[in-house]
Amino acid sequence: MTDTQLDPENAKLHTLAKAQRARNGAAEGAAVRDETGRTYVATTVELPALKLSALQAAVAMAVVGGATGLEAAVLVSAEKQFRQEDLDVVADLKGSGTPPRLFLADPKL
Known about the structure:
By secondary structure, the chain is an alpha+beta fold.
């Protein structure tokens, strides 16, 4: 996936996720857009007592911000497919509309 393959709003999520990953030197970066258009960005959390994927952290931030549904999510990761726990956390915040669009991006793109 590249920014040219995404519509402008989802390309913005991709850019934010890549930038946050690079800024923190993290394994993954993620960005989500909630049902009102607000954007949340996070990276992997690797603490002795807390481990979250970037997507889990971004969804948690959205929930704390009052989101009740997601429109889209981008995960920048070396993984070749979404982990089930990431799909599950996105499903928890599917809201009442259509399921969110999910994009998995190679960090090299």
